[in-house]
C-alpha cells in the first residue's frame, strides 16, 4: 500500500510546489509508481507538469466537493510512472462549501483508499494556509514533508506548523508523523541562509534532511516549459539535489 | 481622510509583507501619518516591526472577531509617525468564526472609520489566500497594491487576482481600484526576471510601477533585527527602491 506524503507549510513561497513536482519526478525515476495530488487552488503543480486544459476538466475540486472518484480525475504526465490529480481555482471555496458536511476533514482520506493500492507514493501539494484543504491533506497523509526556505520569516512559522501537526495527530490522524524538513533556495554566499540552517538543525535535529536544495535558476525556469526540472535540465544543481532528496526519503522509509 | 491600500496577492512569498512594512516606513519618512494593519495570522509584519509580546496582546483578531475598537489595538513602532495593529495566530480561524455573522466582509471597513481621520495612509498586509481576511481588506480599501515576484508561477495567479478585485468592486466596494503592481525580487542577471517583467508590462501596461524592487540580501536580513530595511540599512539598494516606490505611489495619489 502506498505511503502518502503531505508537502505542507503555511508560509508562502517556500518551495512546496517545486518540491512536490520534483521529488515526485525523482521518485518516479527511482521506478516508484507516483501520484501527485494538487490541492492548491493556484494550480501551480498542475501547470508545472504541463497538464492541458482538457486534462484539468475533472480535478481535485470534483473529488473533494463533488465526490467524483479519484481515478476519474487522475491523468498521466510526461514523466513515466507518474500521474497527477490536477487542481482548479474553485478549490478556494472548499472551506465554505464543506462547512456543513460532517467529517469534512476526512474527505480526501476516504477518496484515496483505492489509489493506495495502485501507487507506491502519493504526494499532496498544499496551499499556503492551515485551512480545510491542508487539514484534509494532513488527515489523509502518513507523513508530512516540510519545505523550509532559509529565510528569517520562514523560520517564524515553523513552530506553529509543528504544533498543528501534533494536534492533527492527537485528534484526527494518529499515524501522522514528520517525514522530514528540507531546506530550500539555499545560497552559499548568503550568511542569513547559514544562520537559518544552523537554527533549524539545532531546533529540529535529525528531522532535517542532509540534502539541501540550492537556489538554482534552472529550477524556476522549468515550470514555464511545463516540465519538472529533472526533465528540463537533468544535470543542473537543482535536479541533482532533488535526486539526492528522493534517495534520502527512500532511505528513511526503509528504516521505518 | 486617509487613503487605504490593501497589499494583496494570493501567491505566496512574493513580497507582500516586505512591501507593506517598507513602503509604510518610506511613506512615514515622507512625513505621512501611517498605520499598518497586519491581517496575516503568520504575523510577519508584526515581527518585522519589532512589536513585543505585550504589544501584541490586543490585535487584529480582537478587532475583527471581538469588536475591540481599532485604536485599542494600535501600537507605536520604532518608526516616527507610524503605528501598527499587530496580528495573532488566532486570525487563522476567522473564516470559520465569522461564518454566521451577517456582512462579515465589512467588519474591517467598519472598524477603521475613526482611524481614517487620524492617519494619511492605512496599509493592510494580507495573507496568501483569497479568503475572508483578504476579502475584508479589499472591502475596506480604496485601492490595491499588488506585489509580484518576477517568477513564472507568480505570473500565473495574476489574472485570477485581477478578476477577484473586479468582482469585489462590482458587488461589495465600488470605489476599489488598482493603485499599481510592483515587481519584486528582481535580479538583473536572470533572464526569467526580464521575461516576466516584459510580460506583465505588456499585460498590465501603466498599472505597473516604474520602480522595480531588486533582490537585495539586506532586505531579507532586516526582519531578523525587528526593523524595516530603511532603519536597518538606509543606503542599500532595497531601501532606495522602497523610497522611490513611495514617491511614485504619492505621485499617483496626487494625480487621481
Ligand atoms: N531551488 C530553487 N531555486 C530557484 N528558484 C526556486 C527554487 N525553488 C523554488 N523556486 C522558485 O521560488 C518560487 C516559490 O516556489 P514555489 O512556488 O514552489 O513555493 P510554494 O511554497 O509552493 O508557494 P505557495 O506558498 O504560493 O504555494 C517559485 O517561483 C519557484 O520557481
Ligand atoms: N527585495 C527582496 N530582496 C531579498 N529578499 C526579499 C525581498 N523581498 C522579500 N524578500 C524575502 O523573500 C521572502 C518572501 O517575502 P515576504 O515574506 O515579504 O512575502 P509575502 O508575500 O509576504 O509571503 P506570504 O505569502 O507568506 O505572506 C522573505 O523571506 C523576505 O525576507
Ligand atoms: Mg505552491
Ligand atoms: Mg506575508
Q: What's the structural blueprint in terms of helices and strands?
A:
The structure is a homodimer of 256-residue chains.
Chain A: E1 3-7, H1 16-29, E2 34-38, H2 44-48, H3 60-64, E3 75-76, E4 82-85, H4 94-97, H5 107-111, H6 115-118, E5 121-125, H7 132-140, E6 143-149, H8 152-156, H9 158-171, E7 177-184, H10 191-204, H11 217-221, H12 229-232, H13 237-254
Parallel strand pairs in A: 1-5, 1-6, 2-4, 2-5, 6-7
Antiparallel strand pairs in A: 3-4
Helix pairs in contact in A: 1-13
One adenosine-5'-triphosphate sits between chains A (12-18, 40, 44, 127-128, 184-185, 213, 215-216, 219-220, 223, 238) and B (11-13, 128, 151, 153-154).
Amino acid at each position: 500500500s502506498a505511503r502518502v506524503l503531505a508537502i505542507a507549510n503555511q508560509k508562502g513561497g517556500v518551495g512546496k510546489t517545486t518540491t512536490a513536482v520534483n521529488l515526485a519526478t525523482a521518485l518516479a525515476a527511482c521506478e516508484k509508481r507516483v501520484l501527485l495530488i494538487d490541492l492548491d487552488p493556484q494550480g501551480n503543480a498542475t501547470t508545472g507538469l504541463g497538464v492541458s486544459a482538457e486534462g484539468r476538466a475533472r480535478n481535485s475540486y470534483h473529488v473533494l466537493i463533488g465526490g467524483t472518484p479519484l481515478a476519474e480525475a487522475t491523468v498521466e504526465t510526461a514523466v513515466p510512472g507518474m500521474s497527477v490529480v490536477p487542481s482548479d481555482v474553485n478549490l478556494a471555496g472548499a472551506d465554505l462549501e464543506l462547512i456543513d458536511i460532517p467529517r469534512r476533514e476526512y474527505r480526501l482520506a476516504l477518496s484515496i483508499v483505492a489509489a493506495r493500492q495502485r501507487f507506491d507514493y502519493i504526494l499532496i501539494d498544499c496551499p499556503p494556509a492551515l485551512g480545510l484543504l491542508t487539514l484534509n491533506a494532513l488527515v489523509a497523509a502518513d507523513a508530512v514533508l516540510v519545505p523550509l526556505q532559509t529565510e528569517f520569516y520562514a523560520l517564524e512559522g515553523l513552530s506553529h506548523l509543528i504544533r498543528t501537526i501534533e494536534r492533527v495527530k492527537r485528534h484526527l490522524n494518529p499515524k501522522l508523523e514528520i517525514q522530514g524538513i528540507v531546506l530550500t533556495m539555499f545560497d552559499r554566499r548568503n550568511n542569513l541562509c547559514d544562520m537559518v540552517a544552523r537554527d533549524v538543525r539545532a531546533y529540529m535535529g535529525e528531522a532535517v534532511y542532509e540534502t539541501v536544495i540550492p537556489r538554482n535558476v534552472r529550477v524556476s525556469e522549468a515550470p514555464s516549459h511545463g516540465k519538472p526540472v529533472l526533465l528540463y535540465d537533468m544535470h543542473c544543481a537543482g535536479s541533482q539535489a532533488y535526486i539526492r532528496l528522493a534517495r534520502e526519503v527512500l532511505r528513511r522509509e526503509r528504516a521505518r
